[in-house]
Specification:
The protein is an alpha+beta fold and 384 residues long. 34% of the residues lie in helices and 21% in strands. Helix 3 packs across helix 4 and helix 5 crosses helix 6. The termini are far apart.
Length: 384
C-alpha cells in the first residue's frame, strides 16, 4: 500500500468516527484502532525508506559512496550474512511483531529470512541483553556468584586448597604444594514464567511491547533464580547456599533471644581467613533493621554503618535478599558458588482463542551449587 493510499484510508477512518460518534460499538472501535496502528507504522516505514533512497541518490550526485545494510542469506554462493543477524533493528522489530502475529514489512521479512530460518525461535540480541540485565538487577546474588553462560551440562573447576608459598633452601629439591581443585558439575533446570495479556497487545508500539515483556518475564525469572541461589535443595533443582553445609558448631552460630554483638563476632571468627577478602553478609531487610541495626560495640559505636545507601557490618558489605529467612544471615565468599545460565532467556507465544488473549512464556535454563562449603558460615535462628 502506497503512502497516498494509506493517508486516504486514515482520512476515511477519521470521517467514519466523526460521523458515527457514539453509535459505534466497542468491537468496531477496537478494529479501527488496530487498523490505524498498522497503517501508521507502515506509513512511517515507507517514509523512512524514501528518505534513505533520497540520501543515497544525493550522495551519488555528490560523487560519494554510501554503505547500506543488505540482507544476504548464505546459500553457499559465498555471500555471507551479517555477523549477528539477530542484532539488527529490522530483525528486532520483525521478531517483536511476529510473536504478536502482526504483518511484517519487506525489510523485516528479509531480516527474518537472513536469520537462517530460525527467527521465530531466537530472541533479538538487544531484547535478550535487556532481559538478562534486568534479571541481574532484580537478583543481585547473580552478580556475586561465579556465573557461566555455557550450553548444556558443564563441569567447572574452582580453586580448593591454596597453600602458601615457602622459603626455598638453595640447591634443595622443590616439592610441589598440595594445592587442590574442586570440580562442580552443573546441569540445567527449566525456570518458566507464563504471562497472559488481552488482544490490546496488538495496539502497543514495538518499544512499549518490548518494555512490557522484558519487565514481566525478567522480574518473575529473577525472583525464582534468587530463591534457588539461597534455598535450592539440590534435589531435582539447583543447590543454594542454605544447603552448602550441614550446619553445626564449626560453621554456624545459633542465636537465642535477641542478637548480640558477641554472636556476630563469633560468626565472623568462624569464616576461614582465606575467604575473608571477598566476605559479604546476605540477609533480608527485616533482619538487618530489627536485629543488626540496634547493635553497638563496647564504645557505643554502631556495628552497622551506612555509606551511600550501602550497608556494612563490621566493614563487610551487606546484600539484601527477601529469600533469606527472618533473623538469619549468611557470611561468606559467594564467588565460591558456581551458577550457569545455559542460554539466553527464550520467549514463546501462543494465541488463546477461548479468551481472545495472547500468552507469552519466558524460559531460562539455570543451575547452581556451592563449590566449597567452608567458604560460607551461617547465623542460625535457634529453635524453641
Amino acid at each position: 500500500m502506497r503512502i497516498k493510499e494509506i493517508e486516504a484510508r486514515l482520512a476515511a477512518i477519521k470521517q467514519d468516527i466523526e460521523a458515527r460518534g457514539e453509535s459505534m460499538t466497542a468491537e468496531e472501535i477496537n478494529a479501527l484502532e488496530q487498523e490505524t496502528a498498522q497503517l501508521t507504522e507502515e506509513r512511517a516505514g515507507l517514509i523512512a525508506a524514501a528518505e534513505k533512497r533520497n540520501g543515497i541518490l544525493d550522495n551519488i550526485a555528490k560523487g560519494a559512496g554510501i554503505v547500506s545494510r543488505s540482507f544476504q542469506q548464505n546459500n553457499g554462493d559465498g555471500e555471507a550474512a551479517p555477523d549477528d543477524p539477530f542484532g539488527t533493528p529490522e530483525y528486532r522489530s520483525a521478531w517483536l511483531k511476529n510473536i504478536r502475529r502482526l504483518p511484517l514489512n519487506d525489510a523485516e521479512k528479509r531480516a527474518f529470512s537472513n536469520a537462517s530460518g530460525a527467527g521465530a525461535e531466537v530472541i533479538p540480541t538487544q531484547t535478550a541483553n535487556e532481559i538478562i540485565s534486568k534479571v541481574k538487577t532484580l537478583a543481585p546474588m547473580l552478580n556475586e556468584v561465579t556465573l557461566l553462560h555455557v550450553k548444556g551440562a558443564v563441569k567447572f573447576a574452582i580453586e580448593g586448597t591454596n597453600n602458601a608459598a615457602a622459603i626455598h633452601t638453595e640447591n634443595a629439591s622443590i616439592t610441589a604444594a598440595a594445592d587442590t581443585l574442586t570440580t562442580v558439575s552443573l546441569s540445567g533446570y527449566e525456570i518458566v514464567k507464563l504471562v497472559q495479556i488481552s488482544d490490546t497487545v496488538m495496539t502497543m508500539s514495538i518499544t512499549a511491547f518490548e518494555s512490557w515483556i522484558v519487565n514481566m518475564l525478567a522480574e518473575a525469572i529473577a525472583r525464582k533464580v534468587e530463591d534457588l541461589l539461597i534455598n535450592g535443595t539440590g534435589s531435582s533443582q539447583p543447590k543454594g547456599i542454605e544447603n552448602a553445609n550441614t550446619w553445626g558448631a564449626s560453621n554456624s552460630v545459633a542465636r537465642t533471644g535477641a542478637l548480640t554483638a558477641a554472636n556476630v563476632q563469633t560468626l565472623i571468627g568462624l569464616l576461614p581467613s582465606g575467604y575473608d577478602r571477598n566476605g559479604k553478609f546476605v540477609m533480608n531487610k527485616k533482619t538487618l533493621f530489627t536485629d543488626f541495626m540496634p547493635l553497638q560495640d563496647n564504645s557505643k559505636n554502631h556495628i552497622v554503618t551506612v555509606q551511600n545507601n550501602a550497608y556494612f557490618v563490621y566493614g563487610y558489605p551487606v546484600l539484601l535478599s527477601d529469600y533469606v529467612a527472618d533473623h538469619e544471615a549468611f557470611l561468606g565468599d559467594f564467588k565460591k558458588v558456581c551458577a550457569n545460565l545455559a542460554e539466553n532467556i527464550g520467549v514463546k507465544s501462543a494465541y488463546d482463542i477461548d479468551t481472545n488473549s495472547y500468552k507469552y512464556s519466558g524460559i531460562a535454563i539455570f543451575d547452581c551449587a556451592p563449590a566449597i562449603g567452608e567458604a560460607i558460615v551461617k547465623l542460625v535462628k535457634a529453635t524453641a
